[in-house]
Amino acid sequence: MSFRIIVLAKQVPDTRNVGKDAMKADGTVNRGALEAIFNPEDLHALEQALLIKEKRKDAEVILLTMGPPRAADIIREALYRGADKGYLITDRKFAGSDTLATSYVLSLAVKKLAPFHLVIAGRQAIDGDTAQVGPQVAEKLSLPQVTYTEKFIEIKDKEVSIQRRLERGVETVSTPLPALVTVHSSAASCRPRNARLLMKFKHARTISELQEETKDYTEMLNNKPYLQIDEWGVSDIDAGEEQLGLSGSPTKVKKIENVVFAAKESTLLSSEDNDIDRLMKELIDSHVVG
Amino acid sequence: MHNIFVYCEIDEGQVADVSLELLTKGRKLANELDCKLEAAVIGHNLKGIEKEIFSYGVDILHLADDKRLAPYTTLPHTHLVVNLFQKIKPDVALFGATSVGRDLAPRVASKMKCGLTADCTSLVIGDHKDNKSGKEYKSLLYQIRPAFGGNIIATIINPETRPQMATVREGVMKREIFDKTHKGSLKTIKVDELLTDDLFPVQILERHMEKKKINIKVSPIIVSGGYGVGSKENFELLYELAEVLGGEVGASRAAVDAGFADHERQVGQTGVTVRPKLYIACGISGAVQHTAGMSESAKIIAINNDPKAPINQIADYSIIGDIEDIIPKMIKFYKKNTK
After folding, report:
1. How far is CA A233 from the centre of its chain?
2. Is A30 exposed, middle or buried (0-12, 13-18, 19+ CB in 10 A)?
3. How do residues A127-178 score in pLDDT, each as one tens digit?
4. What phi and psi, each to the nearest 5 degrees, are found at residue B291?
5. Domain B4-199 belongs to what topology?
6. Residue spans of alpha helices (H) in A157-272
7. What fold characterizes domain B216-337?
8. Radius of gyration over every alpha carbon of chain B, rounded to an integer in angstroms
9. Residues A64-106: pLDDT tens digits?
């Protein structure tokens, strides 16, 4: 039996580079204007799995992502870096899921991939910054969890020890396997794509993607079955529909506002001596300083 | 009994700042809803800890004291909190958005199958009408938080599930003693009946914690630098001005990312929220990420060589020019005109 590691990853809009066209005139977010990327901390999670794979010949790295059909992009990115296989969990019924509904779906998919040793995820995703999905998947699977992981210290068959990065220090813990681990941004960065793997997997496709392709992939997939990315929907994971999407999400968005600060009466000053002196005098006189 | 609940975190033997801030907020919410404020402390060697907590207006404090409960590990704390929630059924439950709170709260929420909102910047009581069902809800907790990299502010509600759970970062809420003589009741959680061996799969092998060094939130004057300061060397000028004025140095996320300053000095959505009487923003353009953490400062001075920088819109004074030129002039005048 292999030492199976399941990496949970999410495709996210790149909220770190929000340009001027990111907001529509009506004040809503223009998701189309934001590049879809591999969530940064999930890349750190993938790297931890790949580092274990370097140490253990029996390790197998599986990437699992839930999202729209185009999230298959990040599965390919993971394959180019050394993951063995990927699964896309996609269904219109998942739309509007909050962290609880998301963790329900992911936990069912992980369960379907049992037996496994480790589930590794990024600490949080940059579009929501909640850090909730990891611990919630762990709870649904009754697994011990180790959050804020910086590195694995030791990997044994039935136990790992892990260094965690906390606000003001580090902590080393051990946990029996299977366990769920979330990885912090202070962990090792992910390796770049490997040229050989890029060639090998660049035609990897999901079923939905094949339906969009004009080219006939039948022969290629017969010869190279590893190019088929598995796609699972609601029925594949036996999900209860009332626990999905909006109906499975206890949190509701009541209101979304654009961030605009009201302009104040502002005094414009130059860097000339008399301007600075006048300002400082005013601050001293009004006891703001001194 | 549907009260407000706060999980009080213990940090190096003390009640964590963020927990005291949450108690302050919790007391106000309890007054508004005309209910009680409950809290729990889970840890070890907690004798006497209730005194400080009661002064923040706690009516009922649940205490779980056992050597296996400190330092924090996930499963025993989750088990005790869930068990307590099933018993006391709180309406609202607040946790610090720390490495402990962000490990614990989602696990509790998953077990309770209730909604949780992370990193709230504001908590307000309000009503809600569901447009689809027409159902009306009274006195829900509006959980207000930035989303999408800080470019939008979302108001989240949990109409159907209880408790309504939220985490809040340290420094976001104000901390105020409610009444030094306030006395609540102390309830001991029967730890031995609840803790079983299977709750301890994770063992702590080693811990290295550093003492908290600086706390810019409490400083009345903050001299803050952004990416526009240009270098770590130029940040020295800010330290000099801060020292002369009796303040602390803050930084924007961009300056921290560039390595000009440490993360503990970061002001903004992913750092601390500050409300000093004077905030001097040097080389800070004024992205929402930053201004969300300082726009409530009593007086704001912006020093920037870009007259169009958004920071100028919220500043009381905008000085257009280079900090290398301006800061020494400020120091010089101040030294000459004060004792």
Report:
1. 20
2. middle
3. 888 999 999 999 999 999 999 999 999 999 999 999 999 988 899 999 999 9
4. -65, -25
5. Rossmann fold (3.40.50)
6. 195-201, 207-212, 218-223
7. Rossmann fold (3.40.50)
8. 22
9. 999 999 999 999 999 999 999 999 999 999 999 999 999 999 9
Domain boundaries, chain B: 4-199, 216-337
Say whether the peptide bond before residue A69 is cis (omega within 30 degrees of 0). Answer: no
B67 in contact with chain A, both atoms CB, cutoff 8 A = no
* B99 and chain A in contact, CB less than 8 A: yes
List all residues 6 or more positions away from B102 whose beta carbon is below 8 Å from its beta carbon.
A131, A132, A147, B118, B167
- Tokens encoding A110: 């992980």
CA–CA separation, A74 vs A38, rounded Å? 6
Q: Which residue of A has its CA nearest to B276?
A: A288
Instruction: Determine contact: B162 vs chain A, CB below 8 A.
Output: no
Q: Where does residue B288 rank: exposed (0-12), middle (13-18), buried (19+ CB within 10 A)?
A: buried
Location of structure tokens 């199976």: A4
Which of the 8 DSSP states describes residue A201? H
Token readout for B238 is 């800010």
Residues 6+ apart with CB under 8 A from A122: A8, A9, A10, A39, A40, A41, A42, A43, A44, A45, A134, A182, A183
Annotation: CATH topology of A3-243: Rossmann fold (3.40.50)
Residue ranges per domain, chain A? 3-243
With contacts defined as CB-CB under 8 Å, which chain A residues touch B202?
144, 146, 173-175
